[in-house]
Amino acid sequence: MSEEFTLTGWSKLGGLVRDARMSKGLSQAALAARANVARSWLARVEAGHRGAELEPLLRLLAALDLTLTLRSNAEEQRQVKSHPDRARTASAEKPTTQQGPPDAVDTDLRATSRARRAAWGLPASGTRNTSDD
User: Fold this and answer.
1) CB under 8 A, 24+ apart: contacts of 118-122
2) CA 123 vs CA 36, 106, 116, 126: distances in Å
């Protein structure tokens, strides 16, 4: 069963990449070697830094067995307007992810990160302004 994720910012992308890497049991160094990218670049992507180039990002996603899919929001809007019942049924069948305003998503990601760091016995991470993500 495949999952779909809606990216709402660089932090969300970084969290998804990190979670996919960890679920496959890969270290940053192992994934970086598999994707032919620098480990430091991968660390920046996972940290939510902006401006990752598309070519290495596509290699990274391929190494994680992920595919980047672009979909027009206009098509989904037309389906809802022309067939509200069909759109409701389709959305009920489609895998969903927790979605909220970008601030809520970012807050959830930070809370998850803090919990993970605490579970691993790592110090709390420094504060970072992600309001422009």
Assistant:
1) none
2) 30, 20, 11, 9
Amino acid at 38: A
Closest of 39, 73, 37 to residue 58, by C-alpha: 37
pLDDT by residue (tens digit) across 90-127?
545 544 445 555 566 677 777 877 877 777 777 766 54
Q: Give this prediction's pTM.
A: 0.55
- Evaluate whether 68 touches 58 at the Cβ level (below 8 Å): yes
- Find, among 86, 87, 94, the residue nearest to 3 by Cα: 94
In this structure, how many other beta carbons lie within 10 angstroms of the beta carbon of residue 133? 20
State the Cα angle at 121 between 118 and 124, rounded to 5°: 50
Q: Is 22 exposed, middle or buried (0-12, 13-18, 19+ CB in 10 A)?
A: middle
State how far the Cα of 18 lies from the Cα of 82, in Å rounded to an integer.
39
